[in-house]
Amino acid sequence: MNMKELDKILSSSDADGLALYDFLVNNTDLADEEILALIGKLTEADTTGQFVASAARYLQAIDPERFRPEIDKLINAAIDKDRERAYIPALLATVWGPDYMERSAELRETDDNFRRIFKRVYPEGAI
After folding, report:
1. How far apart are CA 36 and CA 38, in angstroms?
2. Could you give the CA distance from residue 8 to residue 4 in angstroms, rounded to a whole number?
3. pLDDT per position in the chain (127 positions), as tens?
4. pTM of the predicted protein model
5. To the nearest 10°, the Cα dihedral for 49, 90, 113, 6?
């Protein structure tokens, strides 16, 4: 991993979400503080929530325990940015499992991110 490349990306004022997402996916061996800095930059660049939601799904798939703080930050950003609910619905099954609907009452009580997404996707409750 080229540290100059990371420094260039983090200091760029015009980095786009796709380039940052691609860099994150290809460099998950970065130190935790570098990944957090990259996620911060990705959050700034992503205006729709597409890339932060995709990054959360990717990190969840490769190592949910190691990346739990990063995944939580990405999910928070996705909730805030995805006003059209185009990307956050996919997080439900990816992060909380395919049986999330059966466990939705419990998850709404115990997980703030789940509650916030569920409320947006199912505004009138489970159908």
Report:
1. 5
2. 6
3. 456 777 777 777 667 788 899 999 999 999 999 999 999 999 999 999 999 999 999 999 999 999 999 999 999 999 999 999 999 999 999 999 999 999 999 999 999 999 999 999 999 855 5
4. 0.89
5. -50
